[in-house]
Specification:
single chain, alpha/beta, Rossmann fold, 7-stranded mixed beta sheet, two-stranded antiparallel ribbon, 7 helices, disordered N terminus, SAM-dependent_MTases_sf, Methyltransferase type 11 domain-containing protein, Methyltransf_11
């Protein structure tokens, strides 16, 4: 019989790290619980690399928490998390799982440019190294890349160029500073998830440490599928760091391994993608920011 874990976790996340904190004040807990209208649930909260991470979870249903049931039948490593998943028939998350602590307009939050990096140097280097392995060679004719939720830096390999590299982000000053972009657009995907690009436009879509802010993820992933060329690659990278007041509830109340499942579910329930895969590219576990990739390709036409 499968071992299932379903832990209640009413704690929000403080600072820049999206993981549970035992030092949260009772006042903050009460405020958080009030804002999300009920108890929050943790999928696993056991972290990555736990030896008995061979079964995912099953959760009871109630009116105040999401329902999620999927089983992992492979091994414990991050690279195996999305192998042979038995997904529920319907998308298991509810509207309340995509609420945020701060529901003020994101345009206000991102109004001032932030010329900083949101992951540490070793994590950036690991992501850049990963890109160098999966990107087409620089200056490949006809290649187009979209860096979604972009900013002043995209962490592409040094000197990397393509005829078209588009940045889609929230702050124009940041996008103007990004040296790899050939063009950019400013758009709040939580207000308008419709991507302003033609069908079958891009070979690659990247998203760096921002998938956790999407309040309409299936809409955005459907748009990603639409604008990717057949066989095009979508790469979602994330750490355990975030602006916790703007990250969605289901993200801040769960752990790293759960995040892999959450992003994998976006690909799965969108349709039009190959089964998603995960990889742990963390450079120095325990000594630098963790770094995870969930990726998939748009199904190729016959």
């Amino acid at each position: 019989m499968a071992n299932f874990v379903g832990l209640r976790l009413p704690l929000p996340v403080l600072g820049g790290v999206c993981s549970s904190s035992p030092t949260v004040s009772r006042a903050v807990i009460r405020k958080w619980n009030w804002r999300i209208k009920g108890p929050r649930r943790m999928l696993l909260g056991l972290g990555v690399g736990v030896s008995f991470f061979s079964q995912f979870m099953t959760m009871a249903t109630n009116s105040n928490s999401f329902i999620a049931s999927a089983r992992i039948t492979a091994g414990p490593s991050v690279d195996q998390i999305l192998k042979n998943v038995e997904w529920p028939e319907q998308f298991p998350f509810k509207e309340e799982d995509f609420q945020r602590f701060d529901e003020t307009p994101d345009s206000l939050f991102y109004e001032a440019p932030r010329f900083v990096t949101h992951i540490d140097g070793p994590a950036i280097a690991a992501l850049t190294k990963y890109y160098s392995k999966v990107f087409p060679p620089s200056d490949t004719p006809g290649v187009s890349i979209l860096d979604m939720c972009s900013s002043w830096v995209s962490h592409f390999p040094s000197g990397y160029k393509q005829e078209r590299v588009v940045g889609l982000g929230m702050n124009e000053e940041e996008l103007k500073r990004n040296p790899v972009l050939t063009e950019y657009a400013v758009q709040d995907l939580n207000v308008n998830p419709k991507l302003p690009f033609d069908d079958n436009s891009f070979d690659i879509i990247t998203n760096v440490v921002s998938v956790d802010y999407l309040t309409k993820p299936l809409d955005v992933f459907m748009e990603m599928s639409r604008i990717l060329k057949p066989g095009g690659l979508a790469i979602m990278s994330f750490s355990n760091r975030c602006f916790w007041t703007k990250a969605i509830s289901i993200w801040t109340s769960t752990g790293d391994a759960d995040h892999v499942m959450i992003v994998g579910s976006y690909f799965h329930y969108t349709g039009g993608f190959e089964p998603p895969q995960a990889v742990d590219i963390s450079p120095n576990p325990g000594r630098s920011d963790p770094m995870y990739i969930v990726y998939s390709r748009k199904l190729s036409t016959a």
